[in-house]
Amino acid sequence: MNFIFLMDPLETVIMEKDTTFILMLGAHRKGHKIFYLPDGGITLREGQLFFDTIPVVPQQNKEQPFIEKEEVILCEDEIDAIFIRNDPPFDQQYLINTWFLDKLTRRMPIINSPHGIRTVNEKIWVTQFTSLIPRTMISRQKEDLLDFLKTEKHVIAKPTDGYGGQSVFQIKQGDTNTHVILETLTARWSRDIILQQYIPQSQQGDKRILLLDGEPLGAVLRVHSAEDHRNNFFAGGKPHPAAITDRDREIIEEIKPQLQRLGLYFVGIDIIGDYLIEVNVTSPTCLQEMNQLYNKHLENDVIEFVEQLIKD
What we know:
With 312 residues, the chain is an alpha+beta fold. It has eight helices and 17 strands.
């Protein structure tokens, strides 16, 4: 079968960490042909989509993770499944890609659904589940943000569209940098930001759980370095084993029906203590860390799931 991966440039892939790489490798090992599709590689002509791809052979070689072959243009009828794996932010080109791919959602599996990706802002979508999340405010109004800080005493401040721990601040009431942090994040009060109740358990780390069709695939605890409060791997966090608790399962069961309805098959959720923090639907990561911690090949589960979708 032909599997297309719409993803960031191949040269950005870190072989031993990248979830997209291990999915490509897993699919290759099962005999599928792998095609790299860059941004801007989709063309619509006379009602048909064409994909300007590069066939690749993934290999576990740090110096050369991919053997690249000559460019191939595929028409939509030649494709069996598409993986959307671009990292945020959700920019105009990302949006255009999802509009193109909407055309194919009834003909082949797309991991994840373009409509679902557009619908679910990874930080705002969870606010509908008020019993699952920390106390939260989203605003650009200076007085509202300062009032929330006054009430909570200790908050996390972050943009609505960041990823990898970028621009995430911890603020305590009375901090002399409070105003400049809020002013910077809101671009001088012109952009909404998120303030959330600080959860003390974040000192022990935050838990990433990967879901496959709404069921837990695995979990990893991301623990921050001594020099940083952020647990993300991009910010220097380290992976540790993590169990999936009864509370985690309550959270999963609550959000599962909506994820399935939206065609969000492969999803990462972040939990601190008893609270759901955000949902990652664009390019969930941590599959390789879970494989390494538990001596598994979880990519096989994902590829077998996609194979079954194709058969159905």
